[in-house]
Design the sequence.
């Protein structure tokens, strides 16, 4: 909005602000409470600014604002040379003038709001992806054109050129696309170039392929709708994570003397990343075939399926790592020796319900006893505990809500 206000000032300077504009002014009724009218005008002007009247009908709005400033000065001034009657008449005149210009501004702004809707929407999309940060001069120039069209509408000319309107929209859309690329693609592409220079094609080809695929998806989404942050932003964050991982895997695989250095480096980096989200008291990350098991600790109240406050914080971290590594994780929850099969099931359901927020990917959840617990157990207690642990075929899954 700051950039648009600057463009508005520039336009008013270039056009002289249409100072000859005049409209009929209806005097205020005799005996009306002028202090209340002053407060009403202040409120109306503030509300009009929130509704963009200040630039959709800039000249009339500015005249209303000037009238308000003069009215405020009259209301605050002590005029020993004037009679109270003269002072009140001047104040009433300025208030009536301000109300008249503001009413005119609001009416013409409504027309402009309709005729310039597509252009204003295109501008909002461009600004939402930081066009003002990356291309301030271009945004300023097209803003002046938009405001010039609004000024014509304010003066009563509603025949805004379709060609000129389309031209303004086109520039805003190009700004949107270019700014989105700067906002979302620049850092991941920089990481990719650096990784390629380090030899990613030779030392981390699979990780490189995945990073490239994500960047292609991100670029495609920007082309479709750069302002759709709900779709673009997660892809951008994923691209950043994957290209940063590519850099680390490339660096490590160059140092590893093994048959498959990329796979070794990749698994090591993923394990370190996963464990970095948790303290030793919260969870441990253990390689589990091609996946990683996250063994969560101390989630529940003793002998209950109620998740405690510390457990809630840990599960928030689980949500985050599931978003980053959804296809590489299995979650395990520990169970105490005196827990029955029913309690294990209830605890699993509690974790499932806590994670199932509509955005968390599906994940296998298992009940697992620690080795320490099993070693302390004996006889039927150990047998009962082992029986309570579901085999892989009885895995509980979170279902993504659709």
Sequence:
């Amino acid at each position: 909005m700051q950039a648009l206000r600057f463009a508005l000032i520039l336009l008013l300077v270039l056009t002289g602000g249409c100072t000859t504009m005049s409209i009929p002014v209806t005097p205020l009724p005799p005996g009306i409470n002028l202090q209340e009218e002053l407060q009403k005008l202040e409120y109306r002007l503030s509300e009009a600014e929130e509704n963009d009247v200040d630039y959709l009908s800039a000249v009339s709005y500015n005249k209303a604002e000037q009238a308000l400033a003069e009215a405020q000065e009259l209301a605050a001034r002590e005029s020993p040379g004037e009679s109270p009657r003269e002072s009140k008449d001047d104040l009433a005149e300025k208030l009536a003038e301000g109300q008249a210009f503001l009413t005119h501004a609001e009416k013409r702004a409504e027309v402009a709001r309709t005729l310039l809707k597509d252009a204003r929407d295109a501008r909002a999309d461009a600004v939402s992806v930081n066009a003002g940060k990356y291309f301030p001069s271009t945004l300023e120039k097209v803003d002046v054109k938009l405001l010039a069209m609004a000024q014509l509408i304010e003066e009563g000319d509603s025949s805004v050129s379709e060609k000129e309107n389309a031209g303004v929209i086109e520039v805003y859309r190009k700004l949107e696309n270019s700014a989105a690329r700067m906002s979302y693609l620049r850092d991941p592409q920089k990481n990719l170039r650096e990784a390629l220079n380090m030899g990613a094609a030779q030392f981390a080809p699979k990780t490189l392929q995945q990073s490239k695929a994500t960047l292609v998806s991100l670029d495609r989404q920007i082309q479709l709708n750069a302002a759709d942050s709900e779709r673009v932003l997660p892809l951008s964050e994923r691209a950043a994570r994957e290209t940063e991982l590519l850099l680390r895997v490339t660096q490590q695989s160059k140092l590893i003397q093994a048959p498959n250095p990329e796979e070794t480096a990749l698994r090591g980096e993923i394990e370190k990343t996963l464990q970095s989200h948790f303290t030793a008291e919260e969870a441990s990350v253990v390689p589990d075939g091609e996946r990683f098991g996250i063994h969560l600790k101390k989630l529940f109240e003793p002998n209950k399926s109620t998740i405690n406050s510390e457990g809630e914080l840990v599960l928030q971290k689980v949500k985050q790592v599931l978003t980053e590594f959804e296809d590489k994780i299995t979650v395990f929850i520990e169970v105490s020796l005196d827990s029955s099969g029913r309690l294990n099931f209830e605890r699993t359901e509690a974790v499932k319900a806590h994670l199932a927020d509509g955005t968390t990917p599906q994940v296998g959840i298992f009940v697992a006893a620690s080795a320490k617990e099993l070693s302390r157990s004996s006889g039927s207690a150990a047998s009962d505990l082992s029986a309570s642990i579901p085999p892989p075929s009885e895995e509980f899954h979170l279902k993504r809500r659709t």
Q: What stands out?
A: The domain at 278-397 is CATH 3.30.1330.60 (60s Ribosomal Protein L30; Chain: A;).
